[in-house]
Each structure stands twice: as C-alpha cells, then as structure tokens.
C-alpha cells in the first residue's frame, strides 16, 4: 500500500479521463461499422463515456482544497515522468503510422486496427513503470492478449468489432478501477491509500 500525494491522484484521474475518451473512440468506431448493430448500442457507449467523464470530473473537483506538498523531489520526478510520457507517446504515434503504411502498402488495410490496437496495448507497459501505476501492466497485457485472440476470428467484420469492443472494455475497466481507488477523496478530504 502507498499513500499518493494530491498531484499523483490528479494525474491518475487525468489518465482515467484520457482512457475514457480512447475507450469511447474504440467503441464508437467498432459499433458504427457493425451492420447488424442494435439501436441501443451507440447511445449506450455514449452514455458510458459521459458517466465515466462525470465521475472523473467529480474526483478532480474533490481534490480542490487539498494542499499540495511542496516537494522538489516529487516535482522533479513528475517532470521526468512527463518527458518520458512524451517520448513514449511520440514513439507510439510513429509506430502506428508505420504500421498503417506497411499494412496499406501490402493491401492489408483491414488489419490496421488490429496492428494499432496491439501497439496501444504494448505502450501501457512502459507507462506502468514511468507513472508507477501497476494497474497499467494489466491494461497492456489484456489489450494485447484480447486483440491477439480477436485476430484469430476469420470473419473480418466480427474480428474488427471484437477488437474494438475489447479495447473499449479494457480501457473503461481500467478507468473503473482507477475511480474505485480514488473513491475516498471527497469523503475524507484526504488523499486515499491506494494499492500499488
């Protein structure tokens, strides 16, 4: 167990907001391309996104009034983590671009979402170390394993639908766990103890 300072908790919730939006992207793209889509699925995905964003915003709001520690070591570590995040994110973008170009050049365009999903999953592994959020190891592993399983599906439409919904489920599941870990902020006005 570890006690996180307010900046760390805000960072975790900020990450939850980003994961919520990317989960929405994966789900909406997957559902929009599903010919047999039930009418309730897109509104359901939008409602899930709004709910997760609202809870995340309330968690951020609950940290107002909690004093930050003026810790120069923590600030330096935060700055270093931000730099590493920028490098990892940039590398992820380059790999997604190269993957798309190679697959398109080989006339395998329908495999581009699978390739990008695998890259996104792998990028969580270094982020888990950089941000000291062990939960991201599980996020990365579930993304990669789930998408690899989806890649075995022979039907293209079902494969892409399954991969998109797998990514959304893993990302949103991670958000739910982060929000659960930060649930005591508003009640205690103290930074909660969360598992690491």
Outline the structure in words.
The chain has helices at residues 6-32, 41-62, 72-105, 112-130, 135-151, 156-181, 185-188, and strands spanning 2-3, 193-194. It is mainly α and 196 residues long. The protein has one domain (2-62, 77-194). Strands 1-2 form a two-stranded antiparallel ribbon. The protein is globular. The model is unreliable at 186-196 (pLDDT under 50).
Short précis:
With 196 residues, this protein is mostly helical. The chain has one domain.
Low-pLDDT regions: 186-196
Helix content: over 70%
Q: Sketch the topology as an H/E string, one letter per element.
A: EHHHHHHHE
Average pLDDT metric = 86
Question: What general form does the structure show?
Answer: globular
What is the alpha-carbon Rg in Å?
18 Å
Q: Largest beta sheet, briefly?
A: 2 strands, antiparallel
How many structural domains does the protein architecture include?
1
In what range is the share of β-strand residues? under 5%
Total beta strand runs: 2
Which structural class matches the secondary elements? mainly alpha
Continuous helix count: 7
Keywords:
196 residues; mainly alpha
Topology:
Layout: E1 2-3, H1 6-32, H2 41-62, H3 72-105, H4 112-130, H5 135-151, H6 156-181, H7 185-188, E2 193-194
Antiparallel strand pairs: 1-2
Helix pairs in contact: 1-2, 1-6, 2-6, 3-4, 4-5, 5-6
């Amino acid at each position: 167990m570890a006690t996180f300072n307010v900046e760390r908790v805000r960072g975790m919730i900020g990450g939850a907001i980003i994961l919520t939006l990317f989960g929405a992207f994966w789900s909406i793209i997957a559902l929009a391309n599903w010919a047999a889509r039930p009418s309730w699925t897109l509104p359901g995905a939008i409602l899930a996104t709004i709910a997760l964003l609202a809870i995340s915003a309330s968690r951020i709001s609950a940290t107002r009034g909690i004093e930050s520690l003026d810790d120069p070591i923590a600030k330096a570590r935060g700055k270093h983590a931000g730099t590493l995040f920028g490098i990892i994110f940039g590398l992820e973008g380059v790999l997604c671009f190269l993957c798309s170009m190679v697959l398109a050049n080989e006339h395998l365009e329908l495999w581009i979402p699978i390739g990008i999903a695998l890259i996104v999953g792998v990028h969580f592994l270094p982020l888990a170390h950089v941000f000291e959020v062990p939960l991201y190891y599980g996020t990365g592993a579930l993304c990669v394993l789930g998408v690899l399983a989806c890649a075995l599906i022979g039907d293209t439409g079902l494969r892409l639908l399954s991969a998109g919904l797998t990514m959304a489920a893993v990302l949103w599941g991670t958000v739910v766990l982060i929000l659960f870990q930060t649930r005591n902020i508003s009640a205690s006005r103290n930074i909660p103890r969360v598992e690491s």
